[in-house]
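Worked problem 6 (solution included).
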Amino acid sequence: MVWECIRNTFRKKDEGPMKEKVQVKGKLDLYGYNRGEDGELHQVFHKSIDNGVVDDGFDLLCAVLGNSTQPDSLSYMAVGDGVAGGNDATTLTHETARESADYAHTAGTKSFTLSATFTSPDGIKEYGLFNADSAGTMFNIASFDPITVDELVATATVTFS
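Solution. The predicted structure is:
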C-alpha cells in the first residue's frame, strides 16, 4: 500500500516507525488581477481551495522517498478549462497552459510552496502540479468556478502532518 511506504519512511526523532498516519494536505491560493484604466494590474480576487493528491502523486511521493533513482521534481503548474477528474486522473481534462513554478521551503517546516503566473487565462477551472513541462506525472488536482482575468498568480502549498 502506498501509505505504508510513507509511514515507514517518516520517523519521529529517536523513535521507531510512527504510529499515527502521515497526512498530505494541499491548498491552492489563486490571486486574480485585471488592468485598470491606469494600465496597472489591480487585484480583483483571492480564492483559497483545498486540493487532493491523485493516485500517481502518491506513487511519485513514494518514489522520492524510497527509490534510489529519483523522479523529476514538481516544477510545473498547469491550468485548464475542463472539468477536473478524480483521484485516478493522470492529466487535466483540457489543459490550456503550463508554466514553470517557483519552489520555496523553510527548513524545519513541514510544507513547501510552488508558485506560477498565468497571463490572460480564459475560463480556467482546473489545476494540477506536474514534474515535466509537458506530459509528466500529475501530483494533485483541484477544480473551481471559471476564471478569466488579465493575470492569475497561483500558489500551491503542500503540507505534511
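Discussion: Residues 1-9 have pLDDT under 50 and may be disordered.
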